Amino acid sequence: MKKTIISLVCALAAPLAFAQTSTTTTEESITTNKPVTTTESTTYETGTVTTYEPGKTIVVKGEQGPLSFALGTAAHVVNAAGQIVTAPLRAGQKVRVYYTGPTEHRTVEHVVVED
User: 106 in a domain, yes or no?
Assistant: First the structure.
């Protein structure tokens, strides 16, 4: 009888001994991507060429004094009719420089020779 009781107790206790408990943790995060818009407007300055280095810089003396501009690879020089000028600019030529960017990073889009 003792064996039967011990067997019965073991049979009832065994499932409790091997029972597993588990904990599940769920984290939820929400990320909002806001679109970034950048607006650059084209501005122009009119004056006379003081220094011109093709593909590098142009310095134009305007009403506010000399202004330096960086010439990017996309910058081109055209005449008043819109035709591309292949001759290098000379000091004293009257030009209109169209550019983008703040004062310290002015980048030329195109230059119109007005003479």
Answer: yes
Q: Which domain holds residue 66?
A: 43-113
* 103 CA to centre of own chain: 18
31-79 confidence digits (pLDDT tens): 677 776 666 678 899 999 999 998 899 999 999 899 999 998 889 999 9
Q: How far is CA 1 from CA 6, 7, 82, 86, in A?
A: 9, 10, 113, 115
In angstroms, the CA 20 to CA 15 distance is 10
Alpha carbon 11 to its chain's center: 71
3-class DSSP assignment, residue 24: coil
